[in-house]
Amino acid sequence: MTEEKIEYIQWYPGHMAKANREIKEKLKLIDVVIEVVDARLPLSSKNPEINQYTWNKQHILLLNKADLADPDVSQDWIDWFKKNTDIQEIMLYDAFDRRHKTELVKQIQRLNVKNKAQLKCMICGIPNVGKSTVINSLIGKKKTQVGNKPGVTKGQQWLSTPDKLMLLDTPGILWPKFEDPLVGLHLAWLGSIKDTIYEKENIAADLLKYLVAYYPDELEVLYKITLDDKNLPEVFDAIAKSRGLLLRAGEYDYTRTSVLLLNDFKNGRIGRITLERP
Ligand code: G4P
């Protein structure tokens, strides 16, 4: 295990460009755009192209998976988005919390300035931020499949909710070029990029570097290790050792340790963590 340079990740498969075009065709029907980002990386997971969809629409931004994010930093992000964007509503959201769903419905209805009988809302965002889960929370039952792998294409579909909303479910889309290499790395951490196009060991090493700097206590508790003044490769070894991830005697399995670390972050097992700050 050596310290690596940031891996430059780009991923914009053809089906996303096609989905982007299809969304644009449907836009004239839409009253409210509900944009979903991941509260742990709210800026990196915000597709800049979605601004093209929202300029003449009501716009709600959900910082979803707020239950997995650092609450203090989340509040800073809410303040930042309020100050730096003209988005009408910005909410911390946990798609499994019914109170959040009730609040979201209230906010959507508040934006119904033309008093329409049925508001049409589009749910959009990059892969794996929780769009399907948000939709399921709004329709009150499992209608759309959760946990699809990025890269698996999914069509657009209209769904109705008990609160008289029509929801347009859209596939997760990224944008053609990440100007900042950190964005590609962040999106790989979130599981929003197909995992065959990057080296897991590299992106796990970068994640570990951040966690050691900002969330050392959480690492020590989860993996039952002590960080003391260990360097990064030594921390990696300590995790592998603590979890018994060995290739053979005395040799650690870096691939399995990388996958473990990335999955533990993705699923919130390390703790409430936010990986970028305003
Ligand atoms: P997508 O449509 O945007 O692609 O995302 P999806 O709803 O499929 O959700 C992706 C994963 O995130 C799912 O986990 C889902 O349960 C989880 N998730 C969504 N919203 C929230 C939330 O507010 N809080 C928490 N804690 N988790 C949320 P999964 O089925 O385990 O999929 P995966 O992570 O193995 O891909």
TrEMBL record:
Its main location: cytoplasm. It is found in: Cytoplasm. The keyword Metal-binding does not apply. It comes from the Bacteria. It holds the Pfam family MMR_HSR1. The keyword GTP-binding applies. Keywords: Cytoplasm, GTP-binding, Nucleotide-binding. Required for a late step of 50S ribosomal subunit assembly. Has GTPase activity. This is Ribosome biogenesis GTPase A. It comes from Acetobacterium fimetarium.
